[in-house]
Design a protein that fits this description.
By secondary structure, the chain is of the alpha/beta class. The chain has helices at residues 46-53, 117-137, 154-165, 177-185, 200-207, 225-230, 254-258, 276-291, 308-316, and strands at 5-11, 20-26, 34-43, 62-63, 67-75, 87-90, 100-104, 109-110, 145-148, 169-174, 190-193, 213-218, 232-240, 263-265, 299-304, 323-327. The chain is globular, with a radius of gyration of 20 Å. Strands 3, 5, 6, 7, 8, 15 and 16 form a 7-stranded mixed beta sheet that branches. Strand 1 and strand 2 form a beta hairpin. Helix 2 crosses helix 8 (276-291). It contains 9 helices and 16 strands. Bound molecules: NADPH dihydro-nicotinamide-adenine-dinucleotide phosphate. NADPH dihydro-nicotinamide-adenine-dinucleotide phosphate binds next to helix 2, helix 3 and helix 9. NADPH dihydro-nicotinamide-adenine-dinucleotide phosphate binds at residues 45-46, 125-126, 129, 150, 152-156, 174-175, 179, 219-220, 223, 241-245, 267-269, 315-316, 318, 320.
Length: 328
């Protein structure tokens, strides 16, 4: 057995949660530009579901998990700036769901003192997403009004806080009174229980005195897309960044004109951390905000790797708030 051996969450074939299997695996040696990390925590994300189900095609079997944090235990020959013992985190690695995981050195960042590894694992993917949505997709500033759906969720909680910290006004939606209370507690100015309203766009308009929002951050997709579009002010921006409720069906572009010269974008994190500089910039700002206490990370559940199927069942079943972690 290798010195670095431990459990790994394997997707044995494309499919539902029953294709997940924990296997004991020897870690690979890191390649020249890679590091081997002893993983402290793995983030649970919808992208893991899309990969497992084949929405994003992957060659099976593969080790599940994209996001994680841990301690470097071996360093490839060409790696500079990282050493054994360093605490690192990454938003979009490969095969992160294992006790030992090889990651490209270019994809990991140092975790600052004062930020626990589990918190870093919890905030990388969703925190960098909230960062690019509010800085690049639609730069939020004082006076901006943003619609944030699923505001008690992982990305949602971070979006609410980020918009508020940039001086914006948040119209939040969430499903049920507990989740609405969470959104309010984070500073959302208006909170709508979208399970309770017949006309969501009308409720958003009412919250904005009829004006409409400047930007709709919509990670729910199919169930909210129409209402998001109808909630925008003329020339507002529809940022469709996910599909928790299912993919939005094909779309008549003329609707953008009818709504008032609207903009529609479907952004992804990968395109917003495409260079090392961009990854470092966004990570520095997000982890820095966590370190100084201005960005609160809520960990809604921790699961053993062996219970991964239950974690994904909870996420997909709309039962969670904040971020879920797997502990390898
Ligand atoms: P969340 O923690 O937000 O969980 C999803 C939430 O969506 C649920 O808790 C639920 O909140 C709401 N929801 C509404 N309808 C459904 C439904 N039919 N099934 C399941 N959930 C539903 O997840 P994440 O923060 O991890 O991700 C949110 C979205 O952001 C996902 O679509 C994800 O793919 C996307 N994403 C996109 C990225 C990008 O760069 N494009 C990066 C990261 C995430 P409620 O009960 O309040 O309705």
């Amino acid at each position: 057995m290798s010195q670095h051996s431990g459990p790994a969450l394997v997707v044995t074939e494309t499919g539902g949660r029953d294709v997940l299997e924990v296997q004991q695996r020897d870690a690979d040696e890191p390649g020249r530009d890679q590091v081997l990390v002893e993983v402290a925590a793995v983030g649970v994300n919808f992208i893991d579901v899309y990969q497992r189900e084949g929405v994003y095609p992957m060659e099976t079997p593969f080790v599940a998990g994209n996001e994680g944090a841990g301690t470097v235990v071996a360093v490839g020959a060409d790696v500079t700036g990282l050493a054994v013992g360093d605490r690192v985190a990454w938003p979009q690695g490969i095969g992160s769901g294992a006790r030992f995981s090889v990651q490209p050195a270019s994809g990991v960042v140092a975790v600052p003192d004062g930020v626990d590894l589990d918190v870093a694992a919890a905030v990388m993917l969703q925190g960098l997403t909230a960062h690019y949505l509010t800085s690049s997709t639609y730069p939020v500033a004082t006076g901006t009004t943003a619609l944030v759906h699923a505001a008690a969720g992982g990305v949602g909680q971070l979006l609410v806080q980020t918009v508020k910290s940039l001086g914006g006004t948040v119209v939040a939606t969430a499903g049920g009174p507990e989740k609405c209370a969470t959104a309010s507690g984070l500073g959302a100015d208006h909170v709508i229980d979208y399970r309770d309203v017949d006309d969501l766009a009308a409720a958003v308009r009412e919250a904005t005195d009829g004006r409409g929002v400047d930007v709709a951050y919509d990670g729910v997709g199919k169930d909210t897309f129409d209402a998001s579009l109808a909630s925008l002010r003329p020339r507002g921006v529809m940022a469709l960044f996910g599909a928790a409720s299912g993919q939005v069906p094909p779309f008549d572009i003329q609707r953008l004109n009818g709504g008032g010269s609207l903009f529609l974008t479907r952004p992804s994190l990968g395109h917003h951390v495409a260079t090392r500089e961009e990854l470092e910039w966004r990570s520095r700002e997000v982890l820095g905000a966590v370190a100084d206490g201005s960005l609160r990370v809520s960990i809604g559940g921790r699961y053993d790797l062996a219970d991964a199927a239950r974690a994904y069942e909870d996420l997909e079943g709309r039962r969670t708030q904040g971020k879920l972690l797997l502990l390898p």
